[in-house]
Automatic annotation (TrEMBL):
Coiled coil: none annotated. The lineage of its organism: Bacteria, Bacillati, Bacillota, Bacilli, Bacillales. Pfam families: Amidohydro_1. This is Imidazolonepropionase-like amidohydrolase. Residues 56-407 form the Amidohydrolase-related domain.
Length: 420
């Protein structure tokens, strides 16, 4: 039995309860053994002690919408990059992500089961993953990157990455089965058009409600796998919720009826507020963004914020997700500050990034809070995020990262050795 005691910390446990000062957390192997005040937690004499230096201990953060096998490039660079190079890029992005304090992710497209297994087997350092393989899309919809020139820049299919394009109930049924066969932990569908696709608009409705119901039937009812929907236009959002889809991604044009349906069905919302903002920022400094993506981002950015504000005020369950890959990986935690800008408190943003995000992924019994029995996913922040949530945006402020009881980052130890 190996026990580690993390002492001298202020504990923000992810449940939304008040911060506990002078706290202790015990870790046994890869699980949390106990957490509380130093008066309530008995530290074994043979425990390994990690002195937290008065910093703030949080659960490992969770991003429920990333693309680890993607990072937007200009078209020429994409066309000239060798196919296998993307896997080495993904390894680098995974390492970057866990160093920011994100210990679990739900990949919303293009990471395959091999990337997930590389993390699980320790070949690659990164957050634990759920993968959706390839998002389902209609011909000519978001996810179909056929261009009017006739050149198709849609990512190629390969063993382990089935084609996501499908039209009609029976093609949809077969494609869901192919994604599940390829190892999908969650099925992703593009229920509407989007910002980054060349031939549609975010308000365009793609699959019919009946087609969406087939996806839920095949994934959830047959295999116990949830469906997540890229859904930006109001009608597509409502079709997805009525069909029983588990989470709405983006939610740019949410109307009052959609809010009522989401509350009735218990549907999660993953805002990705950072995505359109990052597109516009990139447009000012690089040539990676297509003109249509820039124009659509300008069109939706303020509408998007207002929709998420309304959803938050209505009490919709919000899980943190960023769309990392549309912008460079590693800046994900800017999303928390943006959630606070639409009305959340710093504590609510933290809960959305821990407890609620874990529940959205179906991992609420395993991760997301610092409680006895849960996996030991823990991070230390060098100043109080409840006073300034933006401290988490700078990865240097994340001084310690533990996932599953294993330490992936520890600048505390480096600082101590320099002092000594």
């Amino acid at each position: 039995m190996t026990i580690t005691a993390i002492t001298n910390v202020s504990l923000i446990d992810g449940t939304g309860q008040d911060c506990v000062n002078d706290a202790v957390v015990l870790v046994e192997n890869n699980h949390i053994l106990g957490a509380g005040t130093k008066q309530s937690i008995a530290v074994p004499n043979d425990a390994t002690i990690i002195d937290g230096g008065g910093q703030y201990l949080l659960p490992g953060l969770i991003d429920t919408h990333v693309h680890m096998a993607l990072e937007i490039k200009n078209v020429q660079e994409s066309l000239l990059t060798p196919f296998s190079y993307r896997f080495f890029e993904a390894a680098k992005r995974l390492e970057t992500t866990i160093q920011t304090g994100i210990t679990s992710v739900r990949d919303a497209g293009f990471a395959d089961a091999g990337i997930k297994k590389a993390v699980e087997d320790g070949l690659v350092s990164g957050p634990r993953m759920q993968v959706s393989i390839n998002p389902l899309t209609i011909t000519g919809g978001h996810g179909d990157s056929w261009n009017i020139s006739g050149i198709d820049t849609t990512a190629p299919v390969y063993p382990g990455m089935p084609d996501g394009k499908c039209d009609g109930r029976e093609e949809v049924r077969k494609t869901v089965r192919e994604m599940l066969r390829a190892g999908a932990d969650v099925v992703k569908v593009h229920a509407t058009g989007g910002v980054s696709s060349p031939t549609d608009h975010p308000e365009f409705t793609q699959f019919s409600q009946e087609e969406l119901e087939v996806m839920v039937e095949e994934a959830t009812f047959r295999k116990g796998v949830k469906v997540m929907a890229h859904a930006q236009g109001a009608e597509g959002i409502k079709n997805a919720v009525r069909a029983g889809i588990h989470s709405i991604e983006h939610g740019i044009y949410i109307d009052d009826e959609a809010l009522e349906l989401m509350l009735e069905h218990g549907t999660y919302l993953v805002p990705t507020l950072l995505a359109p903002l990052a597109v516009l920022e990139a447009a000012e400094t690089s040539n990676t963004m297509a003109p249509y993506a820039i124009e659509k981002s300008k069109e939706v950015i303020d509408i998007h914020k207002e929709s998420i504000r309304k959803a938050y005020e209505a009490g919709v369950k919000i899980a943190m997700g960023t769309d990392a890959g549309v912008f460079p990986h590693g800046i994900n935690l800017r999303e928390l500050g943006l959630m606070c800008e639409i009305g959340m408190s710093p504590m609510e943003a933290i809960v959305a990034s821990t407890k609620t995000a874990a529940e959205c992924m179906g991992w609420g019994e395993k991760v997301g809070t610092i409680e006895a029995g849960k996996w030991a996913d823990l991070i230390l922040v060098n100043s109080n995020p409840l006073e300034d949530i933006q401290v988490v945006e700078n990865h240097e402020n994340i001084t310690f990262v533990m996932k599953d009881g294993q330490v992936f980052k520890d600048t505390l130890a480096k600082a101590a050795s320099v002092t000594n």
